[in-house]
Amino acid sequence: MNRTARLALGSIVIGVLVLALKFAAYFVTGSVALFSDALESIINVVAAVAAFVALWVSARPADTNHPYGHTKAEYFSAVIEGVLVVIAALAIMREAYGAFANPKPLDLPLAGLLVSAAASLLNGVWATLLAREGRLRRSPALTADGKHLMADVVTSVGVLVGVILASVTGVTRLDAVLAGLVALNVLWSGWGLVRDSVSGLMDEAAPAETVQRIREVISTHAEGALEAHDVRTRHAGRVTFVEFHLVVPGDMSVRAAHDICDRLEEELKRELEDAAVTIHVEPEGKIEHKGVLVL
């Protein structure tokens, strides 16, 4: 099991522990805002399981039915997580409406607040780790999980402050209002996860700075060629697919053209980890006088 999969498995363990702590805080205080926070933690556990399964599938090598590999499985995990987050937001809204229509006094023992604070601290540390590792390993599943957990941390801190204010001021409906705000924040978080994941599934191009790096590598390491055009990129999980047409002199041998392609592929893979490069060689009659000029 690689480090990415171990992190995903760790998310399941952390998620279950945080879920238990948050429900304990709710049972002690009776706060609907804390209850809404605990409901979201159920989604965290389900999402962590989905991420672990997706990472396991994405790690499988290419086969006859999937010649480009299985890396896009991570996007499905992030989409599932986003949908579950939206469902959680709707459930929280329902609870918030009921609490606002029928407010009830809050019990506010220090133990309950401390338990909730401990759960938020644990979530915050783990979310920071996941977000960092997700960026380093270019894992959509880990990145989505980290972003979701960090949004959960922000929500939890707001809920804690609000519950204290509701108890101190005696305005019990403030608890329900906070639960509603939690739902809106969760809904926004879910929309962000779905949007980012759909971009990956739709083969969105690599970021502009990555494309610029690719063009610079081609320009400086394609000595012997004349031009590169129709440079296209797409992401599939941690893999960046790069495709372009390389124009070479008409009298160049196949071996010489192949050597240039090998050199370019090696340099691009050195610049971009997990790059998959496809180069179409064309004779100089196909030159378009646009795209990437070879220095």
Automatic annotation (TrEMBL):
Domain Cation efflux protein transmembrane: 11-202
Pfam families referenced in this protein's UniProt entry, alphabetically: Cation_efflux (PF01545), ZT_dimer (PF16916)
Membrane topology annotation: Multi-pass membrane protein
Single GO MF descriptor: cadmium ion transmembrane transporter activity
Domain Cation efflux protein cytoplasmic: 207-284
Sorted UniProt keywords: Cell membrane, Membrane, Transmembrane, Transmembrane helix, Transport
A GO-annotated cellular component: plasma membrane
Protein name, per record: Cation diffusion facilitator family transporter
Localization in the cell: Cell membrane
Family according to the record: Belongs to the cation diffusion facilitator (CDF) transporter (TC 2.A.4) family.
One annotated GO biological process: intracellular zinc ion homeostasis
Annotated Gene3D superfamilies: Cation efflux protein transmembrane domain, Cation efflux protein, cytoplasmic domain
Transmembrane regions: 7-29, 41-59, 75-93, 108-129, 149-170, 176-194
